[in-house]
# Entry
Amino acid sequence: MSKGRYSIKAILGGLARLFAVLFLLGCAQSLYAQTYFDFTCTGCGGSTATGVFTTTLVSGDTYLVTALSGTQGTDPMTLLPVGAYGANDNDVFSTAPFLDLAGVSFLVGTTDYNLYYNSGTYMECNNVDNGICEAGTGIPVKFALTPTPESGTLILFGSGLLVLAGILRRKLFA
# Structure
Protein backbone atom coordinates (compact mmCIF):
# COMPACT_ATOMS: atom_id res chain seq x y z
CA MET A 1 0.00 0.00 0.00
CA SER A 2 2.75 2.33 -0.80
CA LYS A 3 2.67 5.10 -3.37
CA GLY A 4 6.13 5.98 -4.48
CA ARG A 5 8.42 6.77 -1.59
CA TYR A 6 5.82 7.34 1.18
CA SER A 7 3.09 5.02 2.42
CA ILE A 8 -0.41 6.24 3.21
CA LYS A 9 0.20 5.29 6.85
CA ALA A 10 3.29 7.50 6.99
CA ILE A 11 1.45 10.43 5.39
CA LEU A 12 -1.49 10.11 7.80
CA GLY A 13 0.95 9.85 10.73
CA GLY A 14 2.70 13.01 9.59
CA LEU A 15 -0.61 14.86 9.25
CA ALA A 16 -1.64 13.72 12.74
CA ARG A 17 1.63 15.05 14.20
CA LEU A 18 1.20 18.33 12.34
CA PHE A 19 -2.35 18.68 13.68
CA ALA A 20 -1.12 17.97 17.22
CA VAL A 21 1.61 20.61 16.98
CA LEU A 22 -0.81 23.22 15.59
CA PHE A 23 -3.32 22.40 18.32
CA LEU A 24 -0.67 22.81 21.04
CA LEU A 25 0.49 26.10 19.57
CA GLY A 26 -3.10 27.37 19.53
CA CYS A 27 -3.51 26.46 23.19
CA ALA A 28 -0.16 28.02 24.12
CA GLN A 29 -1.43 31.44 23.06
CA SER A 30 -4.24 31.30 25.63
CA LEU A 31 -1.82 30.00 28.26
CA TYR A 32 -0.33 33.46 28.67
CA ALA A 33 -3.39 35.50 27.77
CA GLN A 34 -4.84 35.70 31.26
CA THR A 35 -4.57 34.18 34.70
CA TYR A 36 -7.30 33.79 37.26
CA PHE A 37 -7.02 34.18 41.04
CA ASP A 38 -9.73 33.20 43.53
CA PHE A 39 -9.86 35.60 46.46
CA THR A 40 -11.53 35.86 49.85
CA CYS A 41 -11.63 38.91 52.08
CA THR A 42 -13.09 38.40 55.54
CA GLY A 43 -14.15 41.65 57.19
CA CYS A 44 -14.47 43.67 53.97
CA GLY A 45 -17.30 46.11 54.54
CA GLY A 46 -18.25 44.11 57.63
CA SER A 47 -18.88 40.92 55.66
CA THR A 48 -17.04 38.43 53.48
CA ALA A 49 -16.13 39.23 49.90
CA THR A 50 -15.32 36.39 47.51
CA GLY A 51 -14.74 36.14 43.80
CA VAL A 52 -12.28 35.81 40.95
CA PHE A 53 -9.72 38.29 39.65
CA THR A 54 -9.01 38.03 35.92
CA THR A 55 -5.46 39.26 35.36
CA THR A 56 -2.74 39.72 32.78
CA LEU A 57 0.93 39.20 33.54
CA VAL A 58 2.87 42.44 33.91
CA SER A 59 6.27 40.99 34.88
CA GLY A 60 7.74 38.40 37.22
CA ASP A 61 4.99 37.62 39.73
CA THR A 62 3.07 40.89 39.18
CA TYR A 63 -0.37 40.70 37.57
CA LEU A 64 -2.75 43.52 36.62
CA VAL A 65 -6.37 42.84 37.56
CA THR A 66 -8.43 43.49 34.42
CA ALA A 67 -11.80 42.15 35.62
CA LEU A 68 -13.51 41.12 38.81
CA SER A 69 -16.46 38.84 39.33
CA GLY A 70 -17.57 38.39 42.90
CA THR A 71 -19.85 39.36 45.73
CA GLN A 72 -19.55 41.10 49.05
CA GLY A 73 -22.18 39.42 51.16
CA THR A 74 -24.90 39.11 48.53
CA ASP A 75 -24.08 42.29 46.59
CA PRO A 76 -22.14 42.14 43.29
CA MET A 77 -18.69 43.74 43.05
CA THR A 78 -17.36 45.74 40.10
CA LEU A 79 -13.68 46.50 39.47
CA LEU A 80 -12.72 50.18 39.57
CA PRO A 81 -10.17 51.47 37.02
CA VAL A 82 -6.56 52.11 38.05
CA GLY A 83 -6.28 55.34 40.09
CA ALA A 84 -10.03 55.53 40.77
CA TYR A 85 -9.88 55.18 44.57
CA GLY A 86 -7.04 55.18 47.07
CA ALA A 87 -4.47 55.61 44.26
CA ASN A 88 -5.10 51.94 43.44
CA ASP A 89 -2.87 50.23 40.89
CA ASN A 90 -4.96 46.99 40.75
CA ASP A 91 -1.79 44.88 40.94
CA VAL A 92 -1.77 41.48 42.63
CA PHE A 93 1.17 39.16 43.22
CA SER A 94 1.31 35.38 42.95
CA THR A 95 3.32 35.20 46.19
CA ALA A 96 2.61 36.74 49.59
CA PRO A 97 2.02 39.53 50.24
CA PHE A 98 -0.52 39.39 47.45
CA LEU A 99 -1.22 43.14 47.43
CA ASP A 100 0.89 46.29 47.59
CA LEU A 101 0.28 49.65 49.28
CA ALA A 102 -1.79 50.93 46.33
CA GLY A 103 -4.03 47.86 46.30
CA VAL A 104 -7.10 46.81 44.33
CA SER A 105 -10.29 48.88 44.26
CA PHE A 106 -13.85 47.80 43.59
CA LEU A 107 -17.39 49.12 43.81
CA VAL A 108 -20.29 47.56 45.75
CA GLY A 109 -23.52 49.50 45.25
CA THR A 110 -22.43 53.12 45.72
CA THR A 111 -19.47 52.37 48.00
CA ASP A 112 -15.88 52.38 46.73
CA TYR A 113 -13.51 49.96 48.47
CA ASN A 114 -9.74 49.59 48.39
CA LEU A 115 -7.89 46.49 49.60
CA TYR A 116 -4.18 46.94 50.21
CA TYR A 117 -1.20 45.67 52.22
CA ASN A 118 0.56 47.90 54.75
CA SER A 119 3.21 47.01 57.34
CA GLY A 120 2.35 43.31 57.60
CA THR A 121 -1.44 43.79 57.56
CA TYR A 122 -4.08 43.62 54.85
CA MET A 123 -6.32 46.69 55.12
CA GLU A 124 -9.65 47.80 53.69
CA CYS A 125 -10.94 51.33 53.46
CA ASN A 126 -14.06 52.71 51.81
CA ASN A 127 -15.51 56.07 50.89
CA VAL A 128 -18.36 55.78 53.43
CA ASP A 129 -16.54 54.84 56.65
CA ASN A 130 -13.13 56.36 56.02
CA GLY A 131 -13.60 58.97 53.33
CA ILE A 132 -10.12 59.32 51.84
CA CYS A 133 -8.14 56.10 51.53
CA GLU A 134 -4.54 56.74 52.54
CA ALA A 135 -1.85 54.32 53.68
CA GLY A 136 -2.64 53.12 57.19
CA THR A 137 -6.29 54.19 57.16
CA GLY A 138 -9.09 51.67 57.23
CA ILE A 139 -9.61 48.43 59.10
CA PRO A 140 -7.55 45.24 59.16
CA VAL A 141 -9.04 42.33 57.18
CA LYS A 142 -8.09 38.76 56.34
CA PHE A 143 -7.23 38.35 52.66
CA ALA A 144 -6.39 35.18 50.73
CA LEU A 145 -5.50 34.74 47.05
CA THR A 146 -5.26 31.42 45.17
CA PRO A 147 -4.24 30.97 41.52
CA THR A 148 -6.82 29.06 39.47
CA PRO A 149 -5.82 27.13 36.36
CA GLU A 150 -7.61 28.33 33.26
CA SER A 151 -9.21 25.98 30.78
CA GLY A 152 -6.57 26.65 28.10
CA THR A 153 -3.85 25.58 30.50
CA LEU A 154 -5.68 22.37 31.29
CA ILE A 155 -6.20 21.60 27.60
CA LEU A 156 -2.51 22.21 26.90
CA PHE A 157 -1.47 20.00 29.83
CA GLY A 158 -3.86 17.21 28.79
CA SER A 159 -2.72 17.36 25.17
CA GLY A 160 0.90 17.11 26.28
CA LEU A 161 0.09 14.03 28.33
CA LEU A 162 -1.62 12.41 25.33
CA VAL A 163 1.37 13.10 23.09
CA LEU A 164 3.73 11.72 25.74
CA ALA A 165 1.58 8.59 26.10
CA GLY A 166 1.66 8.10 22.31
CA ILE A 167 5.44 8.42 22.19
CA LEU A 168 5.87 5.97 25.07
CA ARG A 169 3.45 3.51 23.48
CA ARG A 170 5.33 3.65 20.18
CA LYS A 171 8.70 3.07 21.88
CA LEU A 172 7.39 0.20 24.01
CA PHE A 173 5.84 -1.67 21.08
CA ALA A 174 8.64 -0.97 18.59
Observations:
- The longest strand covers residues 47-59.
